[in-house]
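Many introductory courses stop at the sequence. We go one step further.
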Amino acid sequence: MRAHLLLLLSLLFATACKEPAPPPSRSSAAKHFLGNAADGKLHVYFLDVGQGDSALIVSPEGRTILVDVGPPSAVNHLVNRLPELLSSRLDLVVLTHPALDHYGSLDAVQKIADPRRLLEPQLPEAPSDYDELLTAIGSQGVEIFSPAPNPSQPRELMRLPLSKGVELTVLWPRAPSEPLVKSQDTKAAQRAHHEANSIVLRLTYGKTSVLLMGDARAETEAALLKHGVELNSTLLKVGAHGADYATTAEFLQKVSPRAAVISVGADNEFRRPDAPLLARLQAARARTFRTDQYGEVHAVSDGTQFVLTTQKLAQGEPPNIQHVITTEGEDPALVVPSPPPVPAVTPEPVKEAPTKTVSAKAEDSTNPPRLGKVVDIDSLGTPTERGSRTEKKAPEAGGEKYYASRRRELFHKANCRSVRQIAPENLVTYNSREEAMRVKKPANDCKP
């Protein structure tokens, strides 16, 4: 099987400059993507999929990677949200491990986002429905591969260049050159084994970086520390939904994150995140964002700092707050810049918001990760060839009008930035708040 994967990767390199003809089984139905064209910045959307995981990466040049696809219960949310964020079909889906809360919406994602390729760890004893799902996805023309090392450099890391200066490195697993991690959990041995060998990714852009841990456990962290790979990261996507058996103090000391995101469902049956884990993050001085409290978390990097905005506000936070995480200085603080101007709307001048700054340590260039195998995930055309969309402007504010998308249950004020993301054909106008309340719910971002 590994030889087959190596042959597949060789074929991918050989065809790096041309797009293969789609097989007859691929649907030719047009996909409706509503996202904006690439803006030269790195975007990471930590999607709110309940008790599960899903994060969308959009590179400065428009390459797209979806890391996990959430549980089956997230299908409706992803079917509505992904077209709003994508300007063309997905370049890559990464399934970190065969757990239903990470792959449960794959079939729907394949239909709506039409991914070109899929990376998965090829772990033993995967659920039968998982194997059947991959077989069906492969029959639709999606190229499936696993993080097998380069035979000539078996101890080096696989890296996937996304754009100029942007790279996604696979830190784990490293089979067959390195044995899979053995979990210490004997009660749920198979599940724990899959978690311990989740695909772990480190995304870098300039001085900024994101470490995505999947459901990796303490045993995985110990293996990464033993191998001495670069872990220092501006943002940490916390492993195992904030379980106490992951994200150890030793690991946090090495990562030194300035902010952490926990993907977790409200009132989940596991009662995650665990209190000891939250205490460790606080001791590490990492600003923590939980999707059950903040909803979707959007991180944007210009290569020198991250700006985080959240779907929901914490108690006491002013509207339009942005959490700016810099790469200079040692002491964490918070920064809240004033809201950006909205085109075609002339409200009263916005007062300068109070400012708060979160600092981050700069990338440690003295101990770079060992990089080996390069996999070209964008051999199927440039962003221009794949098409782009011009930026949409918000409609003019006419009195007490409110706006919503036909595809979503929330309505917004006229000057809300979310209005700019609504496609013209989906835009609905309400002449009063009472009219909007009869069929929609008020959005948390602009609080209409």
